[in-house]
Every structure is written in structure tokens, then in C-alpha cells.
Amino acid sequence: MAYRKERYRLRFLGLSEPMEEQVRQALQGAEFRPPKSSMPRVTNVLLFNLWEEMDLTALYSVVDTLQLGPAQFEVIASVVTTSDNGGVDLPEYILRLIRRTQCSVGFSFVSTGPDATGDDNGTSKE
User: Fold this and answer.
1) Backbone angles phi, psi at 81, to 5 degrees
2) Which residues sit opposite 76 in a β-bridge?
3) Are residues 59 and 27 in contact, defined by beta-carbon separation less than 8 angstroms?
4) What is the DSSP string of the chain?
5) 33-80 pLDDT per residue, tens
6) Residue 110 burial by CB count (10 A; 0-12/13-18/19+): exposed, middle or buried?
7) β-pairing verdict for 32-33 and 104-111
8) 98 pLDDT more than 90
9) What is the largest CA-CA distance in the chain?
10) Which residues contact 89 (CB under 8 A, 6 or more apart)?
């Protein structure tokens, strides 16, 4: 059976320190993560995981107040799988967030290779 993990994150780019603090205050309980990059921090990046039960009401208010546009924040849908193909059906709570905020959307698809129980890794046995 193939392994598959989906994750949804919201990423803010280039916010000033006061703006970043407003977003953090609106999302009490969110676990903010630094971006995975060895490059020096060129622009401020604020990244956190989204989950279905998360209350985003305060975030919507901050986004409206700060007048953030699609270039400043995006939903990132990421899939890690042993399959070499597939797609993503965004869950309703992510679609509501995108519709409400008009943010950008990005996708990441990572194939870790065929699963050990079914595929032959491209080798043939004759």
C-alpha cells in the first residue's frame, strides 16, 4: 500500500515586525515554523500549519485591517507519497479560507519512490 501524507500551511511573506505580531496575536495556539532553507533570511516569512478545527475569525479581521493581498500570503498544499503520481482535493475548510481571503495557493508534490510492497523499482525480472 502506498504512503501518502497531506499537509496544509499558511505562509506570510515580507510582513513588517508590527504586522507579523498582529498575525501572531490573531492565531494564538498556532505553531509557527521557520522556513526550511539554508539561504539567509531575505524577507520575513511566517509559516504555520492549518487544521480543520482552527478558528480563523481573528485572522480574517487582521487580513482585512492590514489589507494584505495575494502576494503577501498563500495557502501551501503539500503531498508526500510513495506514488509517482496523484492529485490533491482541497478540503472544504481550506477552500473557505482561500475564498474568504483571496490569498495565493501553492502546491508541493514529493514522491519518495515506489512502495516496498508492490512496485519493482523499475527493474525487470526475466
Assistant:
1) -150, 160
2) 9, 106
3) yes
4) ---EEEEEEEEEES--HHHHHHHHHHTTT--EE----SS---S-EEEEE--TT---HHHHHHHHHHT--TTTEEEEEEEEESSS-------HHHHHHHHHH--EEEEEEEE----TTT--TT----
5) 765 655 455 457 888 899 999 999 999 999 999 999 999 999 999 988
6) exposed
7) unpaired
8) yes
9) 66
10) none
| Cβ(33)–Cβ(45) below 8 Å | no
Q: 27 near 58, Cβ under 8 Å? A: yes
Q: Which three cell numbers stand for residue 37?
A: 532553507
d(CA 124, CA 98): 45
pLDDT number for residue 101:
94
- What's the grid cell of residue 67? 489589507
Instruction: Give residue for cell 519493482.
Output: 120
Amino acid at 117: T
